Amino acid sequence: xxxxAPTAQxxxxxxxxxxxxxxxxxxxxxxxxxxKRQSRKRKxxxxxxxxxxxxxxxxxxxxxxxxxLGYDLSLLLxxxxxxxxxxxxxxxxxxxxxxxxxxxxxADDQPRLLEVxxxxxxxxxxxxxxxxxxxxxLVRILRDPSPEQPxxxxxxxx
Length: 158
What we know:
Elements: E1 16-17, E2 23-24, H1 32-38, E3 51-55, H2 65-83, H3 87-92, E4 95-100, E5 114-118, H4 121-129, E6 140-143, H5 148-157
Antiparallel strand pairs: 1-2, 3-5, 3-6, 4-5
């Protein structure tokens, strides 16, 4: 197994661009496992503006994760026609991911928050601007708060 310690390079060596487009200094070794580890692409997290939270959406009783995901997406797509008036718009909203936040509690029947990530910021803004159309429903759609907002809210209520 090769060592990832920097090897001695001549003084005239210049910076090298690896496969990911990152500049490597002359002291970095470009061989073997080290290069593979350094050139891995990092997972890009979605913009917070692409996300929103669904509150009070009932959870699936299925134990499989794929079954729960299908159930959550079907409920989400059930509410989209109520938000948007056009069927074409409903089918064009790209849902990238959906996941429940927190651990599932067996004692309470309180559903967890469902975080929904849409493909574009414009689609998320369109959903958030039309949430008033769900008036009278138990389900609420909220903006994904920044990390500072929950802390500010708890300080304001104290």
